[in-house]
Amino acid sequence: MVSLLGLYMAAVYAPVERFLDHNPATSWLLSFYLPHFYRSQVAPLNVVTYIMAGILVWFTGLWVFFYSALQVYGAKLTGGQAVYQGFYRWIRHPQYLAFMVLPVPFLVIWPRYLLLGMYVVLVVFYVNLAIKEEQECLRKYGEAYRRYQAATAMFLPGLRIERLFDFFPARLPKNAVLRGLSVTALATAAAVVSIVVATSLAKAWAVRIPQIRETSTLWVPFSHHDRANLAVVKRIVERDRPVQETLEKLRAGGARSFYVLVIPWRAAHFFGDYEGCLCPQQQWNGVSAEDYWVSPSSLETPHKDFRSLLFFASGDPLPEGDHVLSSLLRQAGRWMPSCMVGMDLGTEQVVSRVILKKACNASCSTLRLPLL
Question: Rounded distance, CA 2 to CA 62, Å?
Answer without folding.
Answer: 24
